[in-house]
C-alpha cells in the first residue's frame, strides 16, 4: 500500500497527464454520485435536527440553539463523513471490481508489456478525480444538509430561515467550510488507493473480484473514520 501511495503521488506530477480519463472519472465520481449523496444526506440532516430538538427539550426545556448546533454538526462532521461513506460504497466498489477484472483477465499485464505504467494509467486519474470530486460533492452535500435542516426547522420547530441563519452565524465559522473541503479531499483520495490496491491483488474468478470489492468497502470505510478522527483532532487546535 505504501508503495502504491508513493507511486501515485509521484505519478500526479509525472507525464503523460491523462486529462480525458481524469474528466471521465470526475463525471463518474461527481455527477453520477450526486443524486444518491444529496438524497441520503438530506435525510441524515432531518434526523439530526429532529433528534437534537427532542433531546434538547428533554435536558434544558428549550431548543432555541438547535439550528446552530445542527449547522455546526453538519459542516464539521455529518456532510463530509456520510458523503465519504456513500462514495466508498459506490465508487470504491466500482473501482475494485473494474481493476480486479482487468487484473484477472491479464489486461494489467498487457499494459506493462506495452510499456504503460498501470499506476499512472489506472490509479492516478482516479485518485485526482476522487480528490477533486470528493471535495466538490462534500460542499454540495453540506449545502443540501443546511437547506434540509432549515426547511425542517421552519415546518416542524417553527424557526424561520432568518432565525435559522442568525442562530447559525453564532456557531459556524468560515473555517468550518474550509475544513469540510479538506476532509472531503482526503476522504476522496483514500477511496481509489484502497480500491486499486485490492484490485491489483485480486485473485482469479468471480469470488476473487467479490472479495476485492468487499475488502475495499470495509477497509476504506475504516480508513475514512480513522482519518476523520485525526483531522478533527488536528482542526480542534485551529479554532
Model description:
By secondary structure, the protein is mainly alpha-helical. The protein has one domain (1-6, 18-232). The protein contains 8 helices and no strands. The protein is elongated and about 70 Å long. The model has no long low-confidence stretch (mean pLDDT 85).
Report strand %: under 5%
Secondary structural class:
mainly alpha
Domain module tally? 1
Radius of gyration (CA) equals 20 Å
Keywords: Membrane, Transmembrane, Transmembrane helix
Transmembrane segments: 34-54, 66-87, 127-157, 177-200, 212-235
GO molecular function, one term: phospholipid transporter activity
Protein name: ABC-type organic solvent resistance transport system, permease protein
Layout of secondary structure:
Blueprint: H1 2-12, H2 19-60, H3 66-104, H4 107-113, H5 118-157, H6 161-171, H7 174-200, H8 205-235
Helix pairs in contact: 1-5, 2-3, 2-5, 3-5, 3-6, 3-7, 3-8, 5-7, 7-8
Transmembrane segments: 34-54, 66-87, 127-157, 177-200, 212-235
Organism: Bdellovibrio bacteriovorus str. Tiberius
Pfam families: MlaE
